[in-house]
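quick one before i forget lol
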Amino acid sequence: MDPVRERSGCVLRRRPTESASEQLKGAVLVFDVDDLDAAMERAAAMGAQVGAIRDMASHGRTVKVRDPGGNVIQFYQAAG
């Protein structure tokens, strides 16, 4: 079986000896948001730990969030 497959423009690589859960360990989902401050406030109100905003100048702003279960996600607001 070929370890490289294309799906919707994405290339997925998998080592045959690695399980899917091992591959995803440390993965972070990034969500584009229109209002980073509102997304942070809502996440905090739902019990998440919200990190410090990272300002990437002309690229936008981002912040890491850890939910009560320990899962990490990231919110991203484009500049402009």
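fyi The helical segments are 20-24, 36-45.
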